[in-house]
Amino acid sequence: MKVLLLNCGSSSIKYKLYDMSDHSVMAAGGIEKIGSAGSFIKTKLPKADKTLCDIPDHNTGVQLVLQTLTSPENGCIHSLDEIDAVGDRIVHGGPFSESTLLTPEIFAEWKKCALGLAPVHSEVQAKSIEAISKCLPNVPQVGIFDTAFHQTIPEHAYLTSLPYEFYEKYGIRRYGFHGTSFRYVLQRSAQVLGFNANEKRIIICHIGNGISVSAIKEGVCIDTTMGMMPNDGPMMGTRTGDMDASALLFLMEKENLTPAATLDLISKNSGLLGISGLTNDMREIVEAAQSGHSRAQLALDMYCYRLKRYIGAYAAILGGVDYIIFTAGVGENQPPVRKGCLEGLEFMGVQLDIETNEKVYGQETVISTPDSKVTVAVIPTDEELMMAQDTMQVVTKQK
Ligand code: ADP
User: pTM for the full model?
Assistant: First the structure.
């Protein structure tokens, strides 16, 4: 079975074509700057290439991806008939609790709730799904929702403490994100480390540009740090993470900020970038801190401190912790961050193996000492493989 995965952002489309017989990636690439001057398509597989094209919208973008897959120069299939299914990454799944076949009824149901909750992302995702339906009318599409994994979070954890009527009226609550990554990492950790997830208390730290920490008990998520939108929780590359709402209102008034400008401020100009004044990239932050840049050091300290605060909080709600797992760009590749956020947690039974931690870049490895009560490990995520597997499973079930 050949599965095409699409991951649409507000001005980009990433794609991958999987051959599910051996999980190999036949084609991979992406389109950037949709709707702006200088838009282009860049392929990584089957060969590296970049072509400037006029791509005014996501509809054109999807068509260009399909053309590229069959093109004699950069393609890998002869005909679009070879594509058996399409998996769409959907950021906001509202109430959906698992990957779902996007029938016209389900698609309409999703659109109705998601356009209200996360209009920017949902609108482009809806356009791309519609474009695929037009170009590949007989190919089933599966929606894979970033929020689905978190639908098990109990009411007392997902509600905000605003008046209840706003939850009823607008669906304001914690939804959580990065769910596909959490599912993959949970499954893979259980395999690699040899445990039964139903019997363990697990904290998974997905630390990339965006950060989510989740608490998992009896195999399901009981709390996560991202909220109604992909903000809240620890401090991130460019996002504030949790934030005193009254301070924001104060700032909006003082600086005459519109809601849109405020959203930009808390999602694009804060976090590591805002504090260091340098960059949102953790590699550059660590380098700058090591060469004595005091604000980079401050940003790094704040970042680790806030991560630690959530690890401690989640250990409390889980009633103790058996496994702490690190994943995503920073979690997999930044020893100073792993060390920084675990320092001082010996009282909880966490004993980091300092030497091993320093050597681990992106490999599946236990980084705690053999006598540590809590096992700490790095397990690289593979959200796309999880999405491809979901797509295949949902489509196969329908047959
Ligand atoms: P996103 O949330 O955009 O998917 P990633 O998971 O790729 O982000 O994480 C991006 C962050 O991870 C950046 O801060 C970057 O510095 C860090 N990072 C990614 N790869 C590496 C690497 N090989 N070595 C060190 N840091 C890395």
Answer: 0.94
